[in-house]
Structures are given as C-alpha cells and as structure tokens.
Amino acid sequence: MITKESIDNLKNHLEIVDVVSQSLELKKSGANFKACCPFHGEDTPSFVVSPAKQIYHCFGCGAGGDSIKFVMEYEKLTYPEALEKLASMYNVTLNYDETNSKPKLDLKVLETINQYYQKLFTNNTIAKDYIKSRGISEFSIEKFEIGYAPKSIDTINYLKNNFLNLADAKDLGVIDSGQNGLYSRFIERITFPIYGLNSKIVGFGGRTITGHNAKYVNSPQTKLFNKSKLLYGYNLAKENIYKKNRIIVTEGYLDVIMLHQAGFNTAVATLGTALTKDHLPILRRGEPKVIVAYDGDNAGLNAAFKASVMLSQSEFEGGVIIFEEGKDPADMVKDGQIQKLNEIFSNPTPFINYAIDYIISKYEINDPMQKQKALHESNEYLKSLSLLYQDEYKRYIAQKLSIRENLVKVTNDKSRVKFDNSSTKIDIAELCIIKAILEKPSRLDLVLDLIDASMFEYHNNEFQMLLDDITNPSLNSIVLNERLEDYDDKRLENELLILLIKFYSKQLNKVLYEKDIDFRKKANLIRKLKDNISQLKKGKLVSFDIDLLK
Asked: pTM for the full model?
C-alpha cells in the first residue's frame, strides 16, 4: 500500500490544468478553463477546471474532483494505478508499506541510456558526418542531445554492466525480448530523445544510417510514451510558444532542429504520425496560432488537409504552409533561405481556405457532375463549422466553383446553443452566500450562530452539505460557477442581512396568521421576530433562536 505521506507529497506536485490538458483541449475562460466534458456527450463546453481550487466540475453531468480523480475516471484506473501514473509523469517517488511494497519504475534508465547514446555519437564518424551534412551545428547537437545507438548486444551489455534494471528497461521501451532473448529497440541509429510535457525523457526516435528497412522508428507505447500525445521539441519550444503566441508543426526531427537553429524556436514535430485529436490539448496551451508546415508531396498535402479540418472545427487560429519543389524547412535553413522562411511563416493559408481548396482540387469542376460532387463535399465540411464561419465561407465556395451563393447550403442547426429548461428553481443570492463561505472557509465561524439551513428557501440542502463537510466535491459546481459573484466580507455581511430580514419577515407572517398557538407564546414570538427585524434593518446581525426557526 502506498503511504499517506508520499500521496500527500505527490498531491503537492500536481497541477490540475497540466494534468487535464494532457487529455482534453482546454480553453481559457476568465480565471478558469473550459472544455467539452469527456464523460458525457455535449457540444457546448460545460466542463470547468479551476487552477486556483485545483478541482474540476462538469455542470452537465456533475462529474468532478481533483487531478487524481480525473486520471482515474478518464483512463479507467484504480486509485493506486492513477497515483503511480501521476508519480511517473511528475517524477515523484512513491513509498510503500513494507507489508505490501511495490517497486517503482526506475526512470533513470532512460536518462542513463540517453547519456550513453550521446557519448557514442561523439566517437562515431559516420553518424557525425551525416548530421553535419544536414547542416546541423555542434550547438544544436548538444541542445537536442543527439546520440547514437550501437549494436543490440552493446546496449544489453551496457545495461548489465551498469546494474540497470532490465525489467524497467523493457517496460520503458529501451529493450525487448524475442525468440533469441533480449534485444535493443534501437540498433545502429542516430537517436533523438523525446521529452514529455513535464520535461522528463519518455522515449526515443531513431534514424538508420546503415540501411535498415525502416528509416525512422520510435519507442513503443509504454506507460510514459504515447506518440499521439507527444510533440518532438515541445520541451525546448514551449516558453517561446507562450512568448511569441505561435507554434510551428513540422513533419520531422531534422526540420525542428534546423528551424530552431535558424531562430524559429517555436517549431515542433509529430512523431511519425499526422496530427490527431490527442495533440489538440497540447496545441491549445497558451492559445498560440498554429502553423502546420508540411511537404508538398501527396502525403503532406493530405495530412495538411486532415489537420486543417480538425483545427478549424476546433476553432484554432493559424494556417497551413506547404513546401514545394521537394524542399523541406531543414533544406531551406541549410541553403540560408532564412528571410524567405520568415515571409512564408508570416503568410499561411487559413485552415478553412486550405480545406475548401483541397476539396475542390480533387474534382474537375468544368464537368457539371464533378462540380456537383465538389459542392456536396464542400457543403458537408462547411456544416461542421460554426454558424458564423458557415455564413462567411459560403461566398468563398461559390466563388471557387463559379456558382450562385444560394446553392451553397448552410445548416440551421443551432444545437451548439443549449439552454437549461429544468424546472428546478435557483436563487443566485443564496448560492453567492454559499460560494463566499466555500471560497473562504474561515467565514463559516461567522455565520454558524447567525443562519441555519432552514433559512435558505431554495438551497438549504447545499448549505447543510456545507455544514456537514465543506470539502464535499458535490459543492464544486457552486465554487466554479462563474455566474456567481465573488463576495468580499462586507458584501457577504450585507447579503446575510437581506437573507435574515427576508426569513424573519416570512416567519412573522406565519405567526400572525397562526390560530393554533397559545396567545402568550404567540405574543412573545411576535415581539422577538419584530425585534430581530428591527436590529437587522439597522445593520446589526443577530443570532438565531431555535424557537424562531420552528
């Protein structure tokens, strides 16, 4: 069993926006972040993440909790499994009770092997000559920690001779086992270490220089390495991405290295796979403009189209750059075409324009039947966008196809806008009082002898829940509700006065019209209630009397 002390230590390292954004595409919304809830289908974001409170809550389905709860629910893990995954992500050591101890995966295996590969590179003439032939400088070799993986047996022997855990090396994708025993995943390849969002090494990419069938290979999927959720070079580019509000997404390791070398230090690359929805949370960080920079071959054009559709549907800013004439960004840097690259990156084709152009380019629009097909496919894409974009770009499609604008059909579906038509009544003032106490728990001492749950007309259950357990996750929906004001102490006191005057006035009316009550008792209650109301109207908070609540 994992000790409580190490769990508390892990929690101190967790940042909920960082944890959630590795799985969801978060958008800034005031002091919080929003996304479409992963736990139920929705088009309008109702999933809120609070960096201040370190919690999340969905106003649609009620899901909520902290970083650990999110990982458990999203990845369907047990509590210990979620702790171990987060500990690996943040490089935090978990301690186990001696009665039920479980060894921790030794992440130093990756760091040690990376250092080994780097040392071998400096002594390998063939690897160094290839890298230098691509125009990569000594500074870039060091910055990107370029290395060289030797023959399989050499890697195995290095692990053994340095007493590194072979089971951990296997779990981390450095080696594997087959019919002939253990073998290295990277054999006679130039290596490029790949880092996760927490700037910890999670795997490698490797390029052959001795004619292996696969030119490039990546680490296999492990607890740390998922190529669909990683971007090469992001660990080195992220600070500049935030400062420059731009991220350049390229196709390969060498493109990233050479672009950084030329000053384009917001460049990253996908790992042998096109952009996927799993990449969107990373791209959304800092809300940068996204420049997709791909080669002009068929594979690059198609990948750029898929990326444009996905990014435009998610309303990313940015556009597409296509490198023609068989040249890629790395070639242009090597040839000294820095100024031309500057101009290219400054004028990308917007995602929607590129997607429409690509669709229409597939058809011979001089043929009426082909034009009809182009119109149909363009329409289907357009309907996947927001209503505003549909209205704006129907003109563009009409111009490209040389047809009347009314032939371009847009959807009247307003399903993106949802309204709460539930019959449950809410009282904003009552909720704001509860939120004020949740935001500053020390205020609870102030209100304990002033108000009772029965004084809340609509939200007495929520207030009672607060009294029973102020940390109850069910109250997250109130804490994260941006429509509720944040009261200071003075405003809270004023609202309490209003609540109490309203409550005691109702009680007074009930007593006045109550027939089944002793005259003397009735007179005494009326006197107390009127006295309380008088004090409250003068701005003085009064303690409640249990007799007045019945």
From this structure: 0.65
